[in-house]
Amino acid sequence: MSVNYQVQSDVAVVQLDNPPVNGLDIVSRRGLIEALDRAQQDPAICAIVITGNARAFSGGADIREFNTPKALEEPSLPSLVVALERSSKPVVMAIQGLALGGGLELSLGAHLRVAEGTAKIGLPEVKLGILPGAGGTQRLPRAVGLETALNMIVSGNPLPARQLAQTRLFDAVVDGDPLEKAIELGRAAAKQEKLPTLIRDLPIEHEDAEAYLGFARTTVKAAAGPYPAPLRCVDALVAAATLSFDEGIAFERKAFVELVNSSESLALRHAFFSERAASKLADIGSEVRPREIRTVAVIGAGTMGGGISMNFLNAGIPVTILETRADALERGLNTIRGNYEASARKGRISAEQVEQRMNLLTATLDYAALADADLIIEAVFEEYSVKESVFRQLDAIARPGAILASNTSTLDVNRIAGFTQRPADVLGMHFFSPANVMKLLELVRGSATAKDVLATALAIAKTINKTAVVSGVCDGFIGNRMLEQYSRQAGFLLDEGALPQQIDRALEKFGFAMGPFRVGDLAGNDIGWAIRKRRYVEKPAITYSKTADLVCELGRYGQKTGAGWYDYSPGDRNPRPSRLVEQLIIDHSAALGLTRRQISDEEIVQRVVYALVNEGAHILEEGIAAKASDIDVVYLAGYGFPPFRGGPMFYADEVGLFNVLGSMRRFAKGYQGQAWAPAPLLLKLAEAGGRFNS
Ligand code: NAD
Questions:
Q1: Per the domain annotation, does 254 fall within a domain?
Q2: Greatest C-alpha distance within the chain
Q3: Separation in Å, CA 423 to CA 13, 193, 419, 468
Q4: Which ligand 1 atom sits nearest the alpha carbon of residue 305?
Q5: What is the domain-level CATH number for residue 306?
Q6: Residue 302 CA: which ligand 1 atom is closest?
């Protein structure tokens, strides 16, 4: 049952009951229409109140129904809103928790609305690349005014109901449960001769709508980048301001259908679902109970240890941080405090919050202080000998059932687990730098990692607001293993004729947040250099362009040394193309006996992105990633892959795997062609006309 019908003397109280957020799927929509009919036909009923629960009035349309016949099945959401407007008895909405998207649109069809002051009110559709399609773009400006509506619809960000209390959207804003007030208003309205004016019949008042909307269009266009939805939202508001209500609704419908089928919206919806799916593992059901995490310990107060600690402090979880030396500990604490104080100066947190968070932090040089910790995360130097010493000590002092995690980026988590007598309690928690900012968290599942340990890590990731993806054990896990192939191609392109600035520009035009050479200069080119030096010994068969080593040999590590792939002026982080590096690259091509050629932006994009895709296919096939969408989430959350392209695997699916394979076969005939042996899974899917994301 997704709708409950109750009678409180002469008022019908219809309660949405479709956990978790009262999504308006077809069953709920039918339930609402039936409840509405029943109330119309019952002469003892004078008014109808529709409500949800304390958590949610309604989170909106059920987006699982998009692009399925269910979305169009009647009563559709637009029909339901019209049915409310046609009710012969006053309909009152009692809103708590949240009224988002279709939930808010539904409420706009009622005669009256009462909300709890803290309820979140918004139309977030634009974030999925669409616009509100059940009249929201036409009714909201009539209720809250053109400017507020435009801001809400174009940003997608919700507002607390209290902030909208003075508008025609709400007839009352109350503290606590709005039901009583809604019943009272319903009864009062029923006594009137005429029903209260519907929102659709209100005028849109604005001193100079034309000028305002013109200005809005320019601003939104500049900010929207490759996304079509924000501008269509503005168009819909122009329609609201200039056309009749019914014409406006027709315009909105047309724009909605167009956007729902756009590649950008498909990609954004894929990203949305993929992120949710990433925390659901096939072999870990709801019967696996996460362990309780009340206190956390972090080993190592360096770059990563400090950032990792901040995540937990921000969530109100006490952290004990351990170092070997007092000076390193003090430096780490000062960095954490400095970061918080910088946030306070920018107004992101209050001075009081700085102290609250610092008060949750305990510093120690003594392992005995970690004996009660529920989760211990190691972030010490990246060497087996150091990890071994740490994990042996942890094994000796940690309480039974404590989870022991390593933040290693390259080492074998199974080997680390083997340093303890409790490998089932060990996993990798691979944070990304800066660890207090980056959303991605790779959870590395060792061969012995217990299910409830993984379930706990997934749960705590949510608590600290990270996007978690589970990876199997392999060199580089999902993200960095793929990135290696991407970087190799970027290097080969230099050898063949491209320059760093051209490659960066081509990839940024494709939509990457930053091209590989700018990233290298930002993160430090010495990190990759150290990894390659190790690879030259461990895996001598792998080839790389030598250019990156040559740049590092000049001490050009990037921004931190004032020069890298690019030149930098003191105090200026803007990269300037470097004549010296250009010459170095050209000379290197000559030394290889290569005749440099003009390389198109299209080839650049295909070479680096398909390198990601091919390695992603290996990762899928080996079971390192459980599903293609997990790989997409890693790249969207951690590597600046353009959200409107949905991640590398989704992008390849959309290009068509047959076409991807065709390009790869062409590249295989060129320079360093051996890098293009197609992954067997890609071959199989391409030949069968399949997709990675089914
Ligand atoms: P870092 O050098 O900044 O910090 C390491 C800290 O560990 C230092 O403060 C050091 O004093 C301390 N330490 C060393 N041995 C210790 C011991 N036995 N006991 C306690 N503390 C000890 O290094 P980092 O960049 O923070 O990296 C730490 C770990 O995180 C490494 O495994 C690294 O691979 C991984 N990692 C780093 C990044 C990154 O971008 N820096 C990203 C992901 C993962």
A1: yes
A2: 93
A3: 55, 74, 8, 21
A4: 26
A5: 3.40.50.720
A6: 4
408 CA to centre of ligand 1 in angstroms: 9
**Would the CB of 479 count as within 6 Å of ligand 1?**
no
Domain assignment of residue 566, yes or no? yes
Q: What's the number of domains the chain is made of?
A: 3
Q: For residue 458, what are the domain limits?
A: 296-471
Residues 38 and 168 in one domain: yes
State residue 72's pLDDT score. 79
Lowest mean pLDDT among 533-547, 641-655, 661-675: 533-547
What's the 391 CA to ligand 1 centre distance in angstroms? 14
467 and 483 co-located in one domain: no
The CATH code of the domain that includes 101 is: 3.90.226.10
pTM: 0.92
H or E segment and range at residue 121: strand 120-122
Whether residues 458 and 505 share a domain: the answer is no
Same domain flag for 510 and 602: yes
Confidence check: pLDDT of 26 > 90: yes
Q: Is the pLDDT of residue 231 over 80?
A: yes
Q: Of the residues 298, 367, 381, which should be mutated to test ligand 1's pocket, given the most ligand atoms within 8 Å of the CB?
A: 381
Tell whether ligand 1 has an atom less than 6 A from the beta carbon of residue 58. Answer: no
Render pLDDT for 425-478 as a digit per residue (tens, 0 to 9).
999 999 999 999 999 999 999 999 999 999 999 999 999 999 999 999 999 999
SS3 52: coil
Of 380, 404, 471, the residue with max ligand 1 atoms within 8 A of its CB, to mutate for a pocket test, comes to 380
Which atom number of ligand 1 is nearest to the Cα of residue 390? 18
Among the candidates 433, 451, 471, a domain finishes at: 471
Band of residue 64 on the pLDDT scale cut at 50, 70, 90:
confident
Question: Does residue 310 sit within a domain?
Answer: yes
Residue 119 located in a structural domain: yes
Domain boundary among the residues 415, 444, 471 is at: 471
- Strand boundaries in 365-482, DSSP class E: 375-378, 403-406, 426-431, 440-444, 467-471
φ and ψ at residue 655, rounded to 5 degrees:
-65, -30
- Same-domain pairing of 208 and 345: no
Average pLDDT in the 320-329 region? 97
User: ∠ at Cα 432 (291, 541), nearest 5°?
Assistant: 115
Instruction: Check: CB of residue 53 under 8 Å from CB of residue 18.
Output: no
Ligand 1 site, residue 409, Cβ cutoff 6 A:
yes
